[in-house]
Amino acid sequence: MSSSRLGMDSPARPAPAPAALLYYVAFSQLLGLAVVATTGTWLGVYRGGIAWESALQFNVHPLCMIIGLVFLQGDALLVYRVFRNEAKRTTKVLHGLLHVFAFVIALVGLVAVFDFHRKKGYADLYSLHSWCGILVFVLFFVQWLMGFSFFLFPGASFSLRSRYRPQHLFLGGAIFLLSVGTALLGLKEALLFELGTKYSKFEPEGVLANVLGLLLAAFGAVVLYILTRADWKRPLQAEEQALSMDFKTLTEGDSPSSQ
Amino acid sequence: MSSSRLGMDSPARPAPAPAALLYYVAFSQLLGLAVVATTGTWLGVYRGGIAWESALQFNVHPLCMIIGLVFLQGDALLVYRVFRNEAKRTTKVLHGLLHVFAFVIALVGLVAVFDFHRKKGYADLYSLHSWCGILVFVLFFVQWLMGFSFFLFPGASFSLRSRYRPQHLFLGGAIFLLSVGTALLGLKEALLFELGTKYSKFEPEGVLANVLGLLLAAFGAVVLYILTRADWKRPLQAEEQALSMDFKTLTEGDSPSSQ
């Protein structure tokens, strides 16, 4: 059974994007910007702002991770829903590039925290947050390399691509959710280290950080909702449809998801 | 377009469950049992075990939440994949009952922590973990009531059920993931409160708890993978198929997901 018959692509129709999809995408962007702004407010108002050459270097870490691994990664997943009628290749390149930006920004955030730990003499990689973070980095990198090799680098056959595609989609969503979860763990860690027992006094910093946590979870949920709505998937363009039909005719019996 | 043409149900075939599905379900159960066993080990070896009438009352909270809102809730979501050829109604009742068990066990865990806080004079509901936990409880309860009213209580029309079904599926998955995330936040909180700076010395308790965190994330990921595999959805039984066909013929133009 082909992946399109399994409902992974809707049949070709050059229709405009569903109105509800546009509202949900706008809402996701509002939430994403609120997450970044709240992170900036938290670091600016309660943590002294951001700098590389001082104790403020730590603050580079949460800001970069939120921008790179939450906001940009989330948006990178949404490009196929937003750019519905562009050529598939253009959308793919945008998807891959947004992930490169996300990775570079996250790398700056990673260097910041390791450098800060080194200067302070703190231990590395002992916490659940750090373990999850390293897991996210490794999975993100492997996923990008695999995605590039299968979908952008010419050479992978149509059959190979169709076989790998569902795994790529699932792992992409899972890495994004793990990124959001890791951010929540890091936020909690930063709060408990700094506020200690004051956290239970409903200090303004604690309440703001809790709101940031809920915004993070809401952004993750809305992105996931948009990605999983079957009727919001990107429709096949006319030429992709034709290609897919040709392929089906040629390889009947060798289709990717028959088991 | 009907939900079955969107790939939400596979066409009727009385085939046995795919072999790979069985392996994944077995793996998910191994992970779930490992999560419960590791939680028990952590509480038993490092936290003095469990009792209601003492300071150990707190320990009832993580154990009940892990068993109810993680393991049982996860398994409740899997019943439609496991019981593929039973009558739909039987599977529905099992799905609803497992959620009732999960809710009752989680309620004991909730009472334990509030009672413990009251006896100790601790503040309630100040942390991100507690906010997420209350959100999980409210959503879980609303989702159960809605599910019962639409799918088990006779009266909801076929058309209403088909309209609500995708929302129920998405919200169910989201509540489960939020439960796993909330458990991770609580685990982190319990570690930082108790271990403090010893956490960074790779104390055995910290390492065990980190492993528990990874097991929790892995259980969530495997359950999510099983739920999202399009070709592992429960096939329509012959009589459900016939009913659905009849309905389609009767209500052409009033189908649930046309927009």
TrEMBL record, chains A, B:
Q: Example GO biological process term?
A: intracellular iron ion homeostasis
**Essential cofactor(s):** heme b
Which Gene Ontology molecular function entries are recorded, alphabetically?
Answer: metal ion binding; transmembrane monodehydroascorbate reductase activity
Q: Does the keyword Transmembrane helix apply?
A: yes
Q: List GO terms (cellular component aspect).
A: chromaffin granule membrane; lysosomal membrane
Note the coiled coil stretches, chain numbering. none
Keywords recorded for this protein, A-Z: Cytoplasmic vesicle, Electron transport, Heme, Iron, Membrane, Metal-binding, Translocase, Transmembrane, Transmembrane helix, Transport
Q: Its topology with respect to the membrane?
A: Multi-pass membrane protein
Q: Give the protein's biological function.
A: Transmembrane reductase that uses ascorbate as an electron donor in the cytoplasm and transfers electrons across membranes to reduce monodehydro-L-ascorbate radical in the lumen of secretory vesicles. It is therefore involved the regeneration and homeostasis within secretory vesicles of ascorbate which in turn provides reducing equivalents needed to support the activity of intravesicular enzymes.
Q: What's the chief localization of this chain? A: membrane
Q: Which PROSITE patterns match?
A: CYTOCHROME_B561 (PS50939)
Q: Which domain of life is it from?
A: Eukaryota
Which residues does the UniProt record annotate as the domain Cytochrome b561? 27-228
SMART domains in alphabetical order: B561 (SM00665)
Recorded catalytic activity of this chain's protein: monodehydro-L-ascorbate radical(out) + L-ascorbate(in) = monodehydro-L-ascorbate radical(in) + L-ascorbate(out)
Write the protein's name: Transmembrane ascorbate-dependent reductase CYB561
The record's subcellular locations are: Cytoplasmic vesicle, Secretory vesicle, Chromaffin granule membrane
Q: Which residues cross the membrane?
A: 21-45, 65-83, 95-114, 134-156, 168-187, 207-227
